[in-house]
Structure formats: C-alpha cells, structure tokens
Write a structure and sequence with these properties.
alpha+beta, seven-stranded mixed β-sheet, single chain, Glutaredoxin
C-alpha cells in the first residue's frame, strides 16, 4: 500500500469534478486544490454516498460549516462515486459544501489511502493556505470519523 504524504510536505495536487448543492440549485465545476491558496482546505475522503457512517460524518461537517468558515477554511468531501451520485446524496442529506468525484481513484492513490478491493480508508487532511499538509488522520477501519471539534482545533493552530 502507498504511504500517505507527510505532514509538513506539499499536499498532492488534485483537480476533480464536483458539485455543490444550494437549495434547488446544483452547480457542477472542477475543483483544483492549488486554486484554493490563501485559505486552508479540509479534504474529507469518505468511502461512499448514501451509507450510514458517511451520511453521519458529512452531515456533522455540514452542521459545523460555520465553524470551519470562521477559521477561513473550506471543506471538500471526496469519494469515488460519480458527480450524479454526489448530487443525489447532497440533496438527500442537505449538504452544502462541494462533493468531489474521484472516479479514477487517482487522488485516492496520491494520498495513499487506497484499499484494494474495498475502495479507500476514511481520511481527513488539513492543507494550509500555502498548500502544505498540516494534519492528517487516516482511519484503519471506516466506521469512525474525525469530529468537527477535532478538525477545527487543528485549523485554529495554523
């Protein structure tokens, strides 16, 4: 298995299609990490849309979005499902932050979290305003996730 990037190293670049749902409007775009320089980014890799743990995780992040925004951070959810799947999931769960589709698994591999035959390890990476990886949590088993409080504590220390 590939290793995850080291804290203190440049975060691997990613550029993925995604969707943001706001009420009845869904906006599709390409989301590129390097274009986010100037503020921190939380990359929340999750195994799949419409699964119980992923729904709880991403709903908790949506509920805590004001806390992330108060620290100048944006949150991106990333999984291997399609943009269409993400849009349905976002509408169902009322998620208002971007959900990105890594259908080829390139970014999942670049971040060293690919699990052959199983998809990916649930992981969160905090990237600072200069594009440097400042904190990461890579799950061993995908049934737990990092809380808003844990992640915002890391962001506050940047």
């Amino acid at each position: 298995m590939a290793t995850t990037p080291s804290v203190g190293s440049p975060a691997p670049e990613l550029s993925l299609p995604g969707v943001v749902v706001d009420g009845d409007t869904a906006t599709r775009d390409t989301f590129t990490l390097s274009e986010q320089r100037g503020h921190p980014v939380v990359l929340a890799f999750y195994p799949g849309d419409n699964t119980a743990v992923c729904a709880r995780q991403l709903c908790s992040y949506a509920a805590g979005l004001e806390q992330f925004n108060a620290l100048g951070a944006v949150v991106w959810g990333i999984s291997p499902q399609s943009v269409e799947s993400h849009e349905g999931f976002a509408r169902k769960q009322k998620l208002t932050f971007p959900l990105l589709a890594d259908t080829t698994g390139t970014s999942i591999a670049d971040y060293g979290i690919k699990l052959p035959g199983l998809g990916l390890r649930r992981s969160v990476f905090v990237v600072d305003a200069e594009g440097v990886l400042r904190w990461k949590h890579v799950g061993l088993v995908g049934v737990t996730y990092q809380t808003v409080e844990t992640i915002t504590k890391q962001l506050a220390g940047l």
